[in-house]
Design brief:
By secondary structure, this protein is of the alpha+beta class. The N and C termini lie far apart (about 65 Å). Strands 1, 2, 3, 4, 5 and 6 form a six-stranded antiparallel beta sheet that branches. Helices cover about 30% and strands about 20% of the residues.
């Protein structure tokens, strides 16, 4: 009896996983894993949104003492137009990225994972006075990102600075 229940449960679980795999493989645009865009994106008083409390977010405007969330801004000498052109070129040169909004000294892009279609929101704002580009990269869902947002910002830094 227990064996039959376990087999039935395993069969049901296999069907759910197969259905999810078919959904992910055939989905375009938004999926069950992308949810909606956060409403706190953009620049307010010269600052990007503060980092999320979860460890799947990095920001150059976080407290430098917050090692989990802080990442250094990207050094850039030049005006906002040159900075944003460099940012846009770097973002568009990476796979799975889409520029959503680019206005003046601000750029917002989404990165979507290939398999599960999870979305990360990445924002940039050029601070001409400081000679830097501030960046914020955050996963929309979950708690951990296994360092993906930090690694992405470092890859972008290399593309923009190099």
């Amino acid at each position: 009896m227990v064996k039959r229940v376990l087999l039935a449960f395993a069969g049901l679980l296999a069907l759910v996983v197969a259905g999810l795999a078919v959904h992910v493989a055939t989905a375009t645009g938004d999926t069950v894993f992308s949810w909606k865009r956060p409403d706190n994106l953009g620049v307010k008083d010269g600052r990007l949104a503060p980092p999320k409390r979860t460890p799947n977010c990095v920001s150059s405007q976080a407290d430098p003492g917050d090692a989990e969330h802080y990442i250094a801004p990207i050094a850039f000498k030049g005006d906002a137009a040159a900075a944003m052109a460099a940012v846009r070129k770097a973002v568009e040169g990476m796979t799975d990225s889409t520029v959503i909004r680019a206005e003046g000294n601000y750029l917002y892009a989404e990165y979507r994972t290939r398999l599960m279609r999870f979305v990360d929101d990445v924002e940039f704002v050029h601070d001409a006075r400081a000679g830097v580009i501030h960046v914020r990269s955050a996963s929309r869902l979950g708690r951990r990102d296994f360092g993906v947002n930090r690694a992405r910002v470092e890859a972008l830094r290399a593309r923009i600075s190099g």
